[in-house]
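Lab notebook, bench 4. The sequencing result for the construct came back, and we need a structural model before the next group meeting so we can plan mutations. Quick request posted to the team channel:

Model the 3D structure of this chain.
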Amino acid sequence: MKFDTPASHNAIDQLKVVGQPLGAVAQIELQTA
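Done. Here's the predicted structure in token form:
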């Protein structure tokens, strides 16, 4: 199954945009813990 619809690409892009800050915060909290 290939998801080549604009909606799926937008969802993936949103996940990447949201996931990057969350990942940075998680790394900082792990370092300071």
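The chain has a mean pLDDT of 79.
Will bring this to the meeting.
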